[in-house]
Amino acid sequence: MKLVFATHNKNKWREVQSMLPEGIKIITLEDIGCLAEIPETASTIEGNALQKAKYIKEKYGYDTFADDTGLEVKALGNAPGVYSARYAGEAKDNEANIDLLLANMQGKEDREAQFKTIFALCLGEKSYSFEGIIRGQITHHRQGTEGFGYDPVFLPEKEERTFAQMSAQEKNQISHRAIALRKLVDFLNSEVEK
Fold first, then answer.
1. What domains, with CATH codes, occur in the chain?
2. Model confidence over 123-137: pLDDT tens digits?
3. Mind telling me the catalytic residues?
């Protein structure tokens, strides 16, 4: 089965490709000649994922999946949420995003947070969505150099290391993206067997 993964994010592409079974091949946006920035104007994580998948399906005709992920911090009213990538501005600067998050968390005792990923799939004439959530805490400072995004300041529940202190393989066992992706893969495998 071949599917377009509607992302220009190479880190995300590598992470997802490494988690997929051999029978599912990802076609990149570059492979189909899509160099444009895909719109992400929905007000929810679910809406953004579906908007991206539908954009590729309607414009290029390929079965497509897309994801959107947000970090939801309880003490900040679930911000940055849908604006996680652009929290500190349109430049989508990971370091600036973390700096702003840590500044906004100063003096906050409740550091509860969760990462939420939604994969939206446009397959044939139908669309589906799959959710993955991992709960944890925001640390007081960066820890670790692996991963990307908010990984250096997110400490998953029942763990003593941030995502950025784990290898990609360790993170992929427990992450929000892995949880949602497993649901997507199970669904695709059931479709292949029909």
1. 2-193 (3.90.950.10)
2. 999 999 999 999 999
3. 68
